[in-house]
Design brief:
Blueprint (H helix, E strand, L loop, with lengths): L5 E7 L4 H7 L1 H8 L3 E7 L6 H10 L3 H4 L15 H7 L4 E6 H7 L6 H4 L1 E3 L7 E5 L14 H15 L3 E6 L1 H9 L4 H23 L2 E6 L15 H4 E7 L5 E8 L11
The chain binds zinc ion (ZN).
């Protein structure tokens, strides 16, 4: 990847490979029209979110970077994309779950100071973080994908970050509630794709290479963390890849092109 390129990474939390292929019609259209390459990624173990967020940003596997559970989340102590970009004078941004603030900006996460960040001294210099807390009625926590993508495009417009990470959590939330083979989970993947379809053209116009993946898949019974194929197989779309189309090779997500990209 070019060292001067601007990159957006979208992590669609809990989106399994086959659901992406079946439901994400806009992303598949980019592959079919030779504007993007689609790869099948094999998630590292355990197939849990916080360990794999750190894997995607360091290239290290959980057993090596040390964040081995969502319950031992702490600030990253490894060289990571945000720290490398900042050290090289590049601008970073994220619209993401507060886990990312804890990993890269401030541990513990304190909403009053950390929820909205504009600070050139932090690894994530422009941050808009959400908690998913505060829903009482349906035993489910969600964010608006519409608001999330608008926040991301707003930061592109205002700050022109060299590296922007967007983390969408609704497929994971719906998957836990209804299961990975449910209509509700499929519809939510469709919804995320539909929101991306409204923003990716703008991001491409702004000169970004856009990478879209997920951290892990989902079991039919609504869980993840283990080593089954349905939990490990994840999609990886690379819009702007020099060899567009469907790739035959598979990669561990610790080997993602992003893991070796210094923006
Ligand atoms: Zn989950």
């Amino acid at each position: 990847m070019k060292s001067n390129g601007k990159v957006i990474l979208v992590i669609i939390d809990g989106l399994k490979f086959q659901t992406a292929v079946d439901q994400c019609g806009y992303l598949e259209a980019l592959v079919e029209s030779k504007k993007a390459r689609r790869m099948k990624m094999i998630a590292v173990l355990p197939t849990l979110s916080a360990p794999i967020y750190e894997t995607l940003h360091t290239g290290l596997e959980p057993v090596d970077h040390g964040i081995t559970s969502n319950d031992n989340l702490r600030k990253s102590n490894s060289e990571n994309i945000f720290s490398i970009a900042k050290e090289n004078g590049l601008r970073t941004a994220a619209a993401a779950h507060s886990y990312f603030s804890t990993l890269y900006n401030a541990d513990p996460y304190i909403p009053i100071t950390d929820q909205e960040v504009n600070d050139a001294n932090k690894p994530i210099q422009y941050g808009r973080f959400y908690s998913e807390k505060g829903y009482s009625s349906f035993n489910i926590s969600l964010i608006s994908e519409h608001d999330l993508m608008n926040q991301a495009s707003m930061m592109i417009d205002r700050y022109k970050p060299h590296y922007l990470m967007i983390h969408s959590c609704s497929c994971d939330s719906i998957g836990h509630k209804f299961g990975g083979s449910s209509q509700e989970y499929s519809k939510q993947a469709w919804m995320v794709n539909d929101q991306l379809a409204q923003h990716i053209p703008f991001w491409m116009e702004e000169g970004y290479r856009v990478l879209i993946t997920s951290d892990h898949g989902f079991t039919d019974s609504g869980n993840h963390g283990g080593s089954s194929n349905i939990e490990r197989w994840t999609p990886y779309y690379d819009i702007g890849h020099p060899r567009p189309g469907v790739a035959k090779e598979k990669f561990l997500n610790s080997q993602s092109p992003l893991a070796s990209c210094h923006c």
